[in-house]
Amino acid sequence: MARIDAFLKLGLAQGCSDVHLAVGVPPMLRMHGDLMPIKFRELGDTELESYISEILTPAMKDRFVGGRDLDFSYVSEEGGRFRVNVFRKDTGVGAVFRFIPEEIPTLESLGMPPVLKQLCDHHQGMVLVTGSTGTGKSTTLAAMIDYLNRSRSANIISLEDPIEFVHVSDRSQIIQRELHTHLHSFADGIRAALREDPDVILVGELRDAETISMAMTAAETGHLVLGTLHTTGAVKTIDRFIDALPGDMREQTKSFLAQSLNAVITQNLVKTPDGRGRTAALEIMIMTRAIGKLIMTDQTHQIPAQLQTGKDLGMQTMDQALMDGIQAKTMDPDDAFRYASDKNLFQKFVTDTSVLPKFELSGKLGSG
Q: Is the peptide bond preceding residue 333 cis, with omega within 30 degrees of 0?
């Protein structure tokens, strides 16, 4: 058994989402969004590197020695599947292990709005799931693929870095391919997928111009493309998409978004009122003719107004989702305040005044 498994076993027993290992600090666990050290000595450079080395293949060791970070999945002998990132920093090596549940969650169990199922029922176009790191994008996409797998007879090709949830083909055939193991790049994976009679293509991350361009081609040629971006809202997602491609493709990209982008789903994970879990708050943009026109005329800043009035189509802003969570008592008001755009709307719900912005008196008070 690899020695690192002892830390992973402890983390699973505590119900954590991530295990952090870094030189100069004790191992830490991510518990419901908060990072907490465990009772253990500070890890030394040689010690931690030897722990990590035990779980690396020869090819991984060569890449790491060559100065590259590593992303891979690891199955502990103690049970549990993890997505792993190994890196170097100023004081030595570090690693983060994210627990991947064995059972794939359903959209219902995640409390997702019904519109997500409707988006899965599209037979072409693009759906983007966005958010910063650790906001549950992979889990949402896994639930969407699970729904497709159970409801449609389709050929689903999933390109991942690394493979996280392992799907078993049901009504659909699911082919999971891993970056650096089965393909050199996401762009290569999409290019190959287009020759493999796909119905649905999942792209783990639209991280460069070539990948985005290939994903656009797939979405325009009769395929449903699911992908992720590290953006924090519909407007920022659209702007990032346009800015990622060469300037001479700007009008073509805007036309693609207006015609072939089905939806943008942005999510945050907000603590529950008891502090023992987190629930997803979703901003949802469904493409309409009005939003398409805003994109074509460079008026994306007006999109939030469309989300606010598009509830009958399943749309909502992040603030609307947070307010609904507070009123339904499924989200902690103090944590929801952190993610709100218009914080004035949420101040009256805050119970911990330390999260409120601090105001200082300007000028000097007279002594009078």
A: no
Angle 277-281-287 from CA coordinates, rounded to 5°:
155
E strands in 32-186 = 34-37, 70-75, 81-89, 92-100, 125-130, 155-160, 173-178
Looking at residue 155, its amino acid is N
- Is the pTM higher than 0.70? The answer reads yes
Burial class (CB in 10 A: 0-12, 13-18, 19+), 265: buried
| Nearest residue to 115 via CA among 342, 307, 269, 340 | 307
What are the tens digits of pLDDT across the range 249-292?
A: 999 999 999 999 999 999 999 999 999 999 999 999 999 999 99
Cα separation, 307 vs 310, in Å, equals 5
Among 36, 42, 35, 22, CA closest to 90: 22
Largest CA distance in the chain: 83
CB 215 within 8 A of CB 190: yes
